[in-house]
Design brief:
Layout: E1 7-9, H1 12-29, E2 35-40, H2 44-53, E3 59-68, E4 71-80, E5 90-98, H3 102-115, E6 119-128, E7 137-142, E8 147-149, H4 154-164, H5 172-183, H6 189-199
Parallel strand pairs: 1-8, 2-3, 2-5, 5-6, 6-7
Antiparallel strand pairs: 3-4
Helix pairs in contact: 1-2, 4-6
Length: 201
């Protein structure tokens, strides 16, 4: 992703609140998964919170690569597949965001092939209108597209934006102004300072 793009920063407290909302929606639906499968890397955090609220101890994960930083790859690829099957189980597949739907479509196929489950349902915090895949559960529906910056990927995403700034800014205040103007991003001062310190080390 290059150039100016509208973004939204998701704080840790908001992420936790959305994960709780999602867990409540799943609980109220009556679906009781035997195992939660997180799609890495974005699904690790919400899957863990959901497993806590739903009291589901069985949890595993596999990684799909569709983005490196903010750059989208042409095709979603499975990097670290599931190691073994759980035949006949009810599976809840979890990710942070459903943007195009490509990741979920590949993930469901992979889970069906590896685990031979009785049932698969999908859950995501943010479901974008641009997605061709419709998850079973979501906390927020997004109708106006924007890039979502989750707290566990802030350094990665913001670092990429900063690298693209030309001419190179000299002060943290200049960077703060450019991020707000070009990306609609307003980070807490400490978060931005930490990102810059690590970026320049």
């Amino acid at each position: 992703m290059t150039g100016k793009v509208r973004c939204e920063y998701i704080s840790w407290s908001r992420f936790y609140r959305l994960s709780r909302i999602l867990a409540t929606i799943i609980h109220d639906s009556g679906f009781k998964p035997d195992i939660i499968v997180a799609i890495g890397r974005g699904g690790y955090m919400p899957a863990r919170i959901i497993s806590d609220f739903l009291h589901i101890m069985n949890m595993t994960a596999f990684k799909i690569e569709h983005y490196r930083g903010t750059e989208k790859k042409p095709v979603a690829l499975i990097r670290y597949p599931l190691s073994e099957g759980v035949s006949g189980k009810k599976v809840l597949l979890v990710d942070d965001v459903c943007d195009t739907g490509d990741t979920f479509e590949l993930a469901e196929k992979h889970v069906e092939e590896r685990m031979q489950p009785e049932e698969i349902r999908s859950a995501v915090m943010h479901f974008k209108k641009t997605s061709s895949f419709v998850p079973d559960y979501y906390a927020v529906r997004i109708f106006k597209w924007r890039w979502l910056i989750y707290p566990w990927a802030a350094a990665e995403d913001i670092g990429e934006f900063i690298k693209q700034i030309a001419p190179k800014p000299f002060t943290i205040e200049e960077i703060r102004v450019i991020l707000a103007r070009d990306y609609s991003v307003r980070l807490p001062d400490k978060v931005l300072a930490d990102i810059l310190a690590l970026l320049n080390s």
